[in-house]
Automatic annotation (TrEMBL):
Organism: Actinorhabdospora filicis
Entry superkingdom: Bacteria
Record keywords: Membrane, Transmembrane, Transmembrane helix
Coiled-coil positions: none
TM regions (residue ranges): 14-35, 56-76, 88-108, 120-142, 154-175, 182-200
Protein name (Swiss-Prot/TrEMBL): Membrane protein
């Protein structure tokens, strides 16, 4: 384990990113524990921060943590690794607090324990998965393409071309309603290729534009998409919701 950690995290210079990742998970775990204790009205837990009757959401504290951590990380010289790790940890805690109330930012109202509040948990899971893949050595498609062709003649135009093609696949995948595939595909392009060529989800923009009676085989594709959604997608979503509620609490 020690040799793996050194080869995967220390040698490539990913220790600050690792600190961000650990702090992000710890921050999310703590704040979810806190809000669940508050919701259960546990007497010994401090409860909400309400100076003068004003309820201060934890997204506010998250913004402060992100500002302090971000500015510190930019100001500290690269050779001061410990301080860069401290800054990354502060930024990770702040990011967890902000994304935990992502739905509040998106809807501009308190939907924390409602169905819309699941968006916050989705955002946290996406951020955690994205960071975890970066730690494992995956690189965003633009960076990966450039590194693959580095040193070759016309490396930059080739890398730009591959990047544009992959981004086009990403746009198609997202338009087909496959958010997870589109985002993870920015690191693992195979998700993009599979997501782009398969049927769109029934409620996606792609389905509304193309799976219409006026287009050839439009109705057939919509029927197939509806069947796939019911047969395969919904059980996966139910499993995802069960797992998220196990960690983050039940929404209503």
């Amino acid at each position: 384990m020690k040799s793996w950690f050194h080869a995967t995290i220390v040698a490539p210079g990913l220790v600050p990113l690792f600190c961000f990742f650990v702090a992000f998970l710890a921050g999310f775990g703590f704040i979810r524990l806190s809000v669940r204790l508050i919701r259960a009205q546990v007497r010994w837990w401090p409860g909400n921060v309400t100076p003068g009757g004003l309820h201060i959401h934890h997204v506010v504290f998250g913004v402060v943590f992100m500002l302090v951590g971000g500015v510190t990380g930019l100001a500290v010289p690269d050779e001061l690794t410990v301080w860069r790790c401290v800054a990354a940890s502060l930024f990770g805690i702040g990011a967890a607090l902000v994304l935990d109330e992502f739905a509040l930012i998106l809807h501009l109202k308190d939907v924390y324990w409602t169905e819309e509040g699941r968006t916050s948990v989705d955002a946290v899971f996406v951020a955690a998965a994205f960071t975890g893949l970066l730690l494992l050595g995956f690189r965003p498609i633009g960076v990966a393409d450039f590194l693959d062709f580095q040193g070759e003649p016309y490396a930059l135009p080739i890398a730009v071309g591959f990047t544009l093609v992959n981004l086009a696949f990403a746009v198609v995948t997202l338009l087909k309603g496959k958010i997870w595939s589109g985002l993870l595909g920015l690191l693992i392009p195979l998700f993009l290729y599979v997501g782009a060529v398969r049927l769109a989800r029934p409620g996606s923009p792609w389905a509304r534009w193309r799976y219409v009676p006026e287009r050839r085989r439009g109705e057939r594709k919509m029927a197939d998409a509806m069947w796939r959604e019911k047969r395969f997608r919904r059980p996966v979503i139910r499993a995802k919701i069960w797992f998220q509620e196990l960690i983050a609490g039940r929404h209503h």
